[in-house]
Design brief:
Helix content is about 30%, strand content about 35%. By secondary structure, the protein is of the alpha+beta class. The protein has 2 domains: about 170 residues, Jelly Rolls (Sandwich); about 40 residues. Strands 1, 2, 4, 5, 6, 10, 14 and 17 form an 8-stranded antiparallel sheet that branches. Strand 8 and strand 9 form a beta hairpin. Helix 1 runs antiparallel to helix 2 and helix 4 packs antiparallel against helix 5. The protein is globular. The relative contact order is 0.18. The mean pLDDT is about 95. It comes from Litorimonas taeanensis.
Length: about 220
């Protein structure tokens, strides 16, 4: 599943995030790149583990956890630590695959899904498109500030060179309760169907009760808490 989720951040939330981003300290993105990625990465990243960065990370995680579409699509078990990336002056992140496992304080996190939360107005910079390579085709993304692109970590992806302005984005990873992509998509379809039917049927109708039962039972079958 590869989707764009609009308005993860409200305008006020985005403004607040930018005020905190202006106070962050930046280091070479090579510090967080794997052996292969170091050869194709030219950007800067900010550590969000302490100080103003920790406050920003908490704000972003709260926005992610409070978004119903993201919760339905990703079925998150755990989120990784977050990074803010800054790309400018010809910077880029060439084609690469994200690490399958990431170190966390409580152990390893399996990267089922990756996400990029765009934080810059797309008209304020040239280049900087996120490109995801699916088998047989590619998709290119450069959405509005506050929008998030969610995509499977298993696919090759890249960020094209930024030739004007500055591209700011938050990147992170999700370990899902439902490891299998096809099963996550089935649940997502059913959850969307339930939301649509809720405008047509009473909450206690046989139709919605049956749909609720089906979603719950599939979660019991497939979830790996």
């Amino acid at each position: 599943m590869l989707i764009t989720i609009s308005n993860i951040f409200s305008p006020n939330g985005l403004e607040s995030a930018h005020k905190r981003i202006n106070k962050l300290e930046w280091k070479s993105g090579l510090n967080t790149a794997g052996k292969t990625a170091k050869q194709v990465k030219k950007n800067f990243q900010a550590d969000l583990s302490q100080g103003i960065g920790a406050v920003l990370q908490s704000d972003i995680l709260n926005a992610l956890q409070g978004n119903a579409v993201l919760q339905a699509a990703a079925q998150p078990k755990s989120f990784s630590n977050l990074l803010i990336s800054k790309t400018e002056n010809g910077g880029f992140y060439g084609a690469h695959i994200d690490n399958a496992l990431m170190n966390m304080a409580k152990g390893k996190l399996r990267t089922d899904l990756s996400f990029t939360l765009f934080l810059s107005d797309p008209n304020s910079y040239d280049g900087g498109e996120l490109i995801v390579q699916y088998p047989g085709f590619t998709q290119t993304f450069k959405p509005e500030a506050g929008d998030l692109v969610l995509y499977p970590s298993r696919y090759i992806h890249e960020v094209t060179p930024v030739t004007r302005g500055t591209r700011l984005a938050c990147v992170g990873w999700v370990e899902s309760l439902i490891p299998q992509q096809d099963k996550r998509e089935t649940l997502f379809d059913l959850i969307n169907l339930r939301a649509s039917l809720s405008h047509q049927f009473p909450a206690q109708s046989a139709e919605l009760m049956t749909l609720n039962k089906t979603i719950s039972n599939l979660l019991r079958l497939w979830a790996q808490p």
